Amino acid sequence: MIANYGYKDGSGDFFIIVDTDKCASCLDKPCVENCPAQVLEVVVDDYDDEVITVREEHRKKIKYSCAPCKPTSGIRQMPCMEACALGGLNHSW
Q1: Is pLDDT at 71 greater than 90 in this prediction?
Q2: Range of 32's domain?
């Protein structure tokens, strides 16, 4: 399943996208440790799998929470995505 955490406003779509199937098969969840803003957390889903979600307090301000790692211009790989060897984590902007 693909889960989207974030928001849409007049300036764009700002979502962190988690592929929970890939996430559930990852044992260490290194993306959580590698996020300097502590945006991500591990939860148990409805199928008793440990998956990654965006903390509730960051969901409506994800663009700003991720801003130190993701500048508005240029391409930069984010620490959480670099840590995810399975490619289960992405950003919409």
Answers
A1: no
A2: 2-91
